């Protein structure tokens, strides 16, 4: 069994690649970072170091590595005989993966087993986004034939893999916790055997609970923490004012999760407590800059703040905790993060109503709009 995995970064090496390797797949990493690919190609193993309770080291061996930018032909060759293709590149990068996959599907014999395609990104239905990007490169006449040569399954991935020390080489430090939920229906009776993953009939509750609890809470910790002058996530949550602000935002998203899905309030409380403990892990060298990265993506319409806040506002529920988190996100000013630089430029150049529309996708007349406009106006005024 062979898996081609796009994105040999933190989640690629420290989670998806590891679980595929443990499941018995021959893993081929594809990445555009030439230095990383050269290092992987030159080495026959790397180690995933867990930190936290029950931590252990796991060694990944037997992989190959391809520079997908420089050696598209070799990549196509690997894809043509692959069983599985996964990604962990970031949702905004999926459109650059699609051209490789459309060619691979064109060249895949019609009688070969379908290629299982799973995007492992922090976004709702990321695999559907990738499928749509692939379909857009084909014609309406051709697409049904290509689509039949693949199984597209959405997934939810959860493991904190922080930025790695400069001298870590290929090794990756990760938390012990992980969860990989994959939707089962697209596979019929033939789901792949990946012991580290669990297959679920309906992914929506899992991905929403994950994105609107883990990711809302983590990003809120980063933004409130940065505003309060902290650089490490664990230090930020040790600050009672930050912890309280994060808790307020999470109480709001938890109410939505419980109202929409089949989780009890007690289950959601326990889930929330667990994730806050994970963020507090002092052995995880995680920073507010990494966790707050790409604030424009995080402030977009269906993401961790605006997504749940909009739904709650539509239900007539106030969302002061989430609005405060958005306010803190607007103050995220990190010169090394291009989205942060763009965010600050947009904030100074646009009127609040225009900013809200362009950045969050919330339209005038939506019940969340007035609250967002006030938060943006306050951030513009430096309040
Ligand atoms: N790090 C974490 O704790 C978690 C990350 N995720 C998600 O996993 C995804 C990846 O995140 P990380 O691994 O942290 O980022 P990362 O920056 O460590 O890795 C991303 C990798 O993708 C590569 N890449 C960029 N463009 C590419 C292209 N066109 N083709 C092939 N490779 C390309 C980069 O060179 C890099 O090696 C994101 O969607 C993130 O939201 C999900 C759960 C946890
Ligand atoms: O790129 P994003 O959306 O910040 O994703 C990385 C985040 O995903 C999460 O892991 C958790 O699974 C966060 O801990 C981490 O900060």
SSE string, helices as H and strands as E? EHEHEEEHEHEHHEEEEEHHHHHHHHHHH
Ions and ligands:
1,4-dihydronicotinamide adenine dinucleotide, 6-O-phosphono-beta-D-fructofuranose
CATH H-level superfamily of the largest domain: NAD(P)-binding Rossmann-like Domain
Number of helices: 17
Integer-rounded radius of gyration = 21 Å
* Distance linking N and C termini: 57 Å
Task: Outline the structure in words.
With 383 residues, this protein is α/β, with parallel strands linked by helices. The protein folds into 2 domains: 2-201, Rossmann fold (3-Layer(aba) Sandwich), CATH 3.40.50; 205-380, Orthogonal Bundle (N-(1-d-carboxylethyl)-l-norvaline Dehydrogenase, domain 2). Helices cover 49% and strands 14% of the residues. It has 17 helices and 12 strands. The chain has helices at residues 10-22, 34-42, 72-80, 94-107, 126-136, 143-147, 204-227, 233-238, 240-260, 265-280, 288-291, 295-298, 306-314, 320-330, 338-349, 352-360, 369-380, and strands spanning 2-6, 26-31, 45-51, 57-61, 64-67, 84-87, 115-119, 150-152, 155-158, 172-175, 179-183, 198-200. It has a 6-stranded parallel beta sheet with strand order 5-2-1-6-7-8, with helices on both faces. Strand 1, helix 1 (10-22) and strand 2 (26-31) form a beta-alpha-beta unit. Helix 14 (320-330) runs parallel beside helix 17. The longest helix has 24 residues, at 204-227. The termini are far apart. The structure holds 1,4-dihydronicotinamide adenine dinucleotide and 6-O-phosphono-beta-D-fructofuranose (F6P). NAD(+) binds at residues 3-14. Pfam families: Mannitol_dh, Mannitol_dh_C. It comes from Agromyces mariniharenae. Belongs to the mannitol dehydrogenase family. It catalyses: D-mannitol 1-phosphate + NAD(+) = beta-D-fructose 6-phosphate + NADH + H(+).
